[in-house]
Amino acid sequence: MGVISTVLGFSGFGFGFSAGIVIGYFLFIYVQPTDVKDVKVRPLVEYDSKSLEGILPEIPLWVKNPDYDRIDWLNRFLELMWPYLNKAICRTAQDIAKPIIAENTAKYKIDSVEFESLTLGSLPPTFQGMKVYVTEEQELIMEPSLKWAANPNITVAVKAYGLKATIQIVDLQVFASPRITLKPLVPTFPCFAKILVSLMEKPHVDFGLKLLGADVMAIPGLYRFVQETIKKQVASMYLWPKTLEVPIMDPSKASKRPVGILLVKVVRAQNLRKKDLLGKSDPYVKLKMSDDKLPSKKTTVKRSNLNPEWGEDFKFVVTDPENQALEVNVFDWEQVGKHEKMGMNMIPLRELLPEGTKVTTLNLLKTMDPNDVQNEKSRGELTLELTYKPFKEEDIEKEDTQGADVIEKAPDGTPAGGGLLYVVVHEAQDLEGKHHTNPYAKIIFKGEEKKTKVIKKNRDPRWEDEFEFVCEEPPVNDKLHVEVISKAPKAGLIHGKETLGYIDISLADVISNKRINEKYHLIDSKNGQIQIELQWRTS
After folding, report:
1. What's the burial of 537, exposed, middle or buried (CB within 10 Å: 0-12/13-18/19+)?
2. Does residue 419 contact residue 535 with C-beta atoms inside 8 Å?
3. Which residues are in coiled coils (predicted)?
4. 346-393 per-position pLDDT tens digit
5. CA 521 to CA 350: how far, in whole Å?
6. Which CATH architecture has domain 262-397?
7. What are the φ and ψ backbone dihedral angles of 468, each rounded to 5 degrees?
């Protein structure tokens, strides 16, 4: 009987289980619910502000304001680098705090102040977006929106009068909108000389402060007092237009800006060696500044003369008086073939006193190698008269602040002496050639002509080429002629070079203001513009 009941039990379970699966399958397939509605997909622009706040509790700034760019890549970078940045920032903060603590402990009769723990937590700052400004100056302006809800563990132990108090900072929140300016931009890594930081509005700083384990910020009135005090202190130091300046490098050395003029008079040469088989040598002198890409300057050729007298004057622009040198080479002119070098030497500029005149006689050498035995042989002497005239300090400081929104005025009165006209051809826009557009700019000043590099097939070329013109007197009544030309392609046998436009710039404003940086509409061009920076430096 027991066996029969067991068999029937298993049979009933198997039948019921199979029947349940079959019935459930048909109900799932063929029975449709009546209370399910299709989802309506609507674009965000159709929602009102309240509905958007319900869908997105915190709308990113780059969504609300089209001027801000999305920078998720930077947030991802911070997320990956934060464990290392956290340690580096805390170590730097401790190094900065040590001398400050040491100075104030004795002042307030405190035994010691030590960090028991210092970490910024595991949550990195988040950038909600970044606004980038485009200016005509050599600078980069960024305005990120920073939000940081941190979980730091900062514990400071203070010992005084035999007692110990422990202060802990927890639950830090910082909301700020800083303006970060990198300027001036220079062609030396990291490509900017200074970092200027300022706050565009008062920051929001919230944190918990525990003293001996108790929450001090819970004291009535203290929270608001601390908040207002922090905002006032930070605003008084860094609220725009006040800035925090972080120097990176010397701008004048980084960009190789002119700092003075070297006046050279080639007086005479004596006892030069004869190079020609028949007759005497025909000497001339070539002069060049080291690290200068400009071609060498030459004296006239003195025919059949081993003791020539020149008395010729030359001017050179100095960019680094500590490391530059004047290179001097004497050659024998040949009507046919290569001119033969008669001797050479150089004068380091650091040996010259500012505003002082030095007359020196150089022994001509075979090479500049001090161990070369060939230099022991006499090759003659060359006498030079040198005067180094550095630019005025206010002019150098003014150029170092290039990129400022306001152009500073020059000292009262027009410079009485000579100076240097410094020209930077930045870029051009909307150029249009009739048959080709391979633009370069040609600058003409008092008959002296200089050219930028050629940029092929570009209507918006960016040259950033710099030129210098040494002037005997301020060019108050002169004009600078700038012409943009399209160079014909190599295969351009039919169509030659084309003029894309020109501009004549009066230099009176440059002399009075020391510096201008403007965009000019090109004459004989439909929409073409060119940006040129002009500087005047007195000697």
Report:
1. buried
2. no
3. none
4. 889 888 888 888 888 888 888 888 777 777 788 888 999 998 888 765
5. 44
6. Sandwich (2.60)
7. -130, 140
